[in-house]
Amino acid sequence: MWVRLRTDGACDGMPVQVLTGRLERLKGLLGTRPDACPVLLTCCNSVHTFGMHYALDLAFVDERGCVRKSLRQVGPKRLRSARHAVYVIERPCKAGEWLTCGQKVELETQQRFEALQLRSIVKVKFQRKEGKPCVR
Fold it and tell me: How far is 58 from 92, CA to CA, in rounded Å?
């Protein structure tokens, strides 16, 4: 599944692949190239870079969507964690903006139609009264 990050600044609109399975999360970006797309590791507060051939940028996010810890250029053979994080966003290290501590992150779901072209952003919100999804 793919989502798009919505933030109040850096990385707004960045497409991210969500990894939910245990083996998917364990692997993360391992075996990919430095131009790989960012990934979001669910149910995760710790990341390793053993076996990586390039550095990573990491953002540990809590249940409120607040970035608890942001790290740049985490090299191979490292272990990093953040105590209250519930998911981690990781990408190959690159110049430019990255998420910062305290920054608010929201996720928008999107449908994937062709190879790497991402379109049709659909934001799903739940109505409090009926508990049914409301698509905008």
Answer: 9
- The string of DSSP codes covering 75-127 is -SS-EEE-TT-SEEEEEE--SS----TT-BEEEEEEEEEETTEEEEEE-EEE-
26: containing domain: 2-135
DSSP label at residue 27: H
CB atoms within 10 A of CB 19: 22
Lowest average pLDDT, out of 3-17, 42-56, 75-89, 108-122, goes to 108-122
CATH assignment at residue 90: 2.60.120.1140
Residue 114 clears pLDDT 50, i.e. is over it:
no
Identify the top-confidence range among 26-30, 37-41, 132-136: 37-41
Task: Identify whether the C-beta of residue 89 lies closer than 8 Å to the C-beta of residue 48.
Answer: no
Amino acid at 84: H
* Distance (Å, whole) CA 97 – CA 36: 17
The pLDDT-based confidence of 113 (bands split at 50, 70, 90) is: very low
Distance, in Å, from the CA atom of 88 to the CA atom of 74, rounded to the nearest integer, reads 14
- For the chain, the domain total comes to 1
